[in-house]
User: Fold these one by one.
Assistant:
Number 1:
Amino acid sequence: MIKKINLEYPLDSLEPYYSRETLNIHYNTLYAGYVDNTNLTLDKLDKARKERNFENIKCLEKNLSFFASGVVLHELFFENMGPAIPSSPDLKLMEQINKDFGNFEIFKEQFTESSKVVEASGWNLLVWVPRLDKLEIIQCEKHQDLTIWNSKPILVLDMWEHSYFLQYKANRAEYIKAFWNIVNWNNVNKRFKNR
């Protein structure tokens, strides 16, 4: 069984960039639902194995992929935000960003533009790709699909409408612009260091 992670900051600490109401619903309702449904699916899979009844295995495995991926990505998203200092990458991450994207401004522009055009219930991610030995930005239109296997998420932005609509309505660009004010670079730096 998995448990919800605890937020490392109060619900209102990301304002005005990310409202308390949005964060409360996102964390306590939507994310909690992913945790609950992951656990429910794990229970059903355990029961199927004990009874050796795999009649619904396709559905159960699809559900596990969907709900557990939702748990992981939401946890990364919540951990990637915060009222933390510093407000920029550390030296090692900045060197890698400069190497792979040219400079920070080009990286930020690509990440921003990529986020704007994510389709469906999708995400935008900065990932470390060990096979390529570099950072890349990828769109994940369904959070259980369209990944580069073995890549490690470094920075995650939830582009599902539920993550911004209450506050920003259909203005994705303003939501993305606000996100840059609450990136927890301590967490991003740590993820890059531990890649």
Note: The first helix runs from residue 20 to 51.
Number 2:
Amino acid sequence: MARKAIVIGSGIAGIAAAIRLANKGFAVDVYEANAYLGGKLTVTQLGDYRFDAGPSLFTMPHLVEELFTLSGKNPEDYFEYERCKTVCHYFFEDGTFLPFSASKEEIFAEIERTLNVDSKPTKLHYDRSALIYKATYQAFLENSLHKVGNYFSKAILRCIAYIPWLNIFTTMHKANEKALNHPKLVQIFDRYATYNGSNPYLAPGILNIIPHLEQEIGTFFPTKGMHSITTSLVKLAEELGVKFHLNQKVDEILVENKSVKGIRIGAEQIFSDIVLCNSDIKPAYKNLLPKETLNPKTLAQEPSSSAMIFYWGIKQIFPQLDLHNIFFSADYQNEFSTIFENKSVCDDPTVYVHISSKMNAVDAPEKGENWFVMVNVPSNSGQDWEEMRNQIRQNVIQKLNRLLKTDIESLIEEEDYLDPIRIEQRTSSFAGALYGASSNDRMAAFFRHPNFSKINGLYFAGGSVHPGGGIPLCLLSAKIATDLVK
């Protein structure tokens, strides 16, 4: 008889963990509090407009494909995606437009043509990013940082050898400022801190691994939208025998003699051999493990940034174009400081408006576009989010009108929003933080909760535990956690 495994939560890490556990021979049941699967990686429909509600940037697709090949399936039978020809489109207030192509050679040429500076420093900065990736990926992103035995591995020894080149003892911003020869380039490379909700002025320079992941490995877009990552993996999981239970909020993780026994939903106890928790770590301990104590250093970690997102179905502005990633640089001091009351996203003097416009019959009606407009904001600490939302919306529209020379508001046909309050309500993410804890300290990675616990048979996966938030790290989190299951 197969051993039983329970997964709490159906975020991308929970679904991936369920697939991996099924491949280990477990009978897997996933319990989800919401009426839908996918956590933040879900979808919303406004009239004739379809929106990917959560993540809008897709990198490291091989981590998704790996789940299919592990299961003996052909990924192409379930999931299709294409590489973006342009990684990002950068608009600056002074009228500068700087597209970053998928080709680094084209980027270097664009830098010299548009900014009139030598592109060699940017090339060397990408080389440093590749070196950081080579030195640290296996040690820090594929293995637990909380198992003593891992510190005697070849991967860790390789890291130690490369320490002088990893920018561990400086901040991301200082490393960028030192390496690059134009303030606009510093601004562009600083924004990578937002990929895990951190502050480039505080986060260690080792986070400059991210440009390599985006540029060298590439950015991609699923042909059926980001939500198809969820739907394709759910289909695979169900074919493997995984059972999903919607509208089933888990009330407690059952523990006896320091071993997990299962879960409780209302008065019903459901027993299992192991439990993997995909819930945010802070509410998990508070609500599901009230008798257990969370490490004080983990509890005290600063939440990552959150987001104010506007979903706009608008009349077409960019005919014949398919623009996934557009960033408008913002002058924080002039445009957003009064809104955030000096509690900006990590005190970053730049705020980026991210527009994803995917125009096809699935996402928008004829002559329409779906816009995912995102401004990084602090996590919730009691702010008046309704007032802030109105002010941010007004500032964003004014900025877009200036830069695009149009009247955006008159073109909006459908509209909704997501803010830290709604994010917390819908995903149980502490304070609406998108990535669990920030990485605003060189030791932050070590203070994240491990993928295992002191309770035998209890494991954790997701953006609030090691190695961090975002689709790739959540998938790696599921791999690390399930590899620990024997």
Note: The domain at 105-217 is CATH 1.10.405 (Guanine Nucleotide Dissociation Inhibitor; domain 1).
Number 3:
Amino acid sequence: MSIQYKLALDVMSGERDPFASIDAAVEALKNDDALGVFLVGDENIITEHFPNDLMHRAEIIHTDQVVSMDESPVDALRKKKNSSMRLAINLVSEGKADACVSSGNTGALMANAKYVLKTLPTIDRPAFMKAIPTKGDYTYMLDLGANSSCTADQLYQFALMGNIVAREIKGISSPKVALLNIGEEEIKGHEMIKEASILLEDSSINYVGYIEGNDIVENKADVIVTDGFTGNIAIKAMEGTIGLMVSVLKDSLNDDSIKEGSQFALDIFKKSIDPRRHNGALLVGLNGIVVKSHGSSDSYGHYHALLTAIDEVKKEIIPKMIESFEK
């Protein structure tokens, strides 16, 4: 099968890179004959670690410039124009790659992606959006850190974008959209939330009202909208809680007499709520697909971030967003 789509991979910026990103690319290529990749980073390291039998579907873009995790977004944008992150985004802008995946500095990725790709018509700011496991399914949540404060109009725009992604990826004709708030009652929340609620009530979106933090995992909505400050705290609190649950459960089932059976149960439990299986936050609102992989994730997590990008490419999310906003 010939290559049908290509991903531009920044393989240098994550905490476990380049090996985590390279190993994820290898796994993706083995499982998808239609995939091709650009590996952006140090050519010597990539060549040494990447298998020769897959090189015909990979192209190495060499650079030894990397954006560090503690670098300011402004410095990354102005002083690191040849960084692995920037060059990967450029490949999308130039039409050579269908999507970019990076596990690097979140602020730098946001700044570079917005500068290079620009936002879609009618969209003020891009937002980070990802799938969150729920009881029996998953929900999409945005924003998860791109915008620490938002206006009601911007929350409304996030809802529009989330609605399109959920509709196309989950195959739901009318996804349920909710606003994250401190209560379900109409009187709860600050003015910005109340104004956003009015905008959604007057829209064609299937708006189901407010949702509280403890109901995020209850599968009450297909899309949950919030500002980036609140969303980032919520998602990290959930990930930390999952880690705590796994640790406590593992300790409680450590008796030798039940160790074999309990380990099997623990493995099933961990797999069902493993955050790595839902790794990959889509930076929606840009004129191109950019996926942010968790900076500390291993190759398994990065692999799922690649799957997220591939899903967006296959479902033609960008053209469908543009079409929807033009209407």
Note: The longest strand covers residues 127-134.
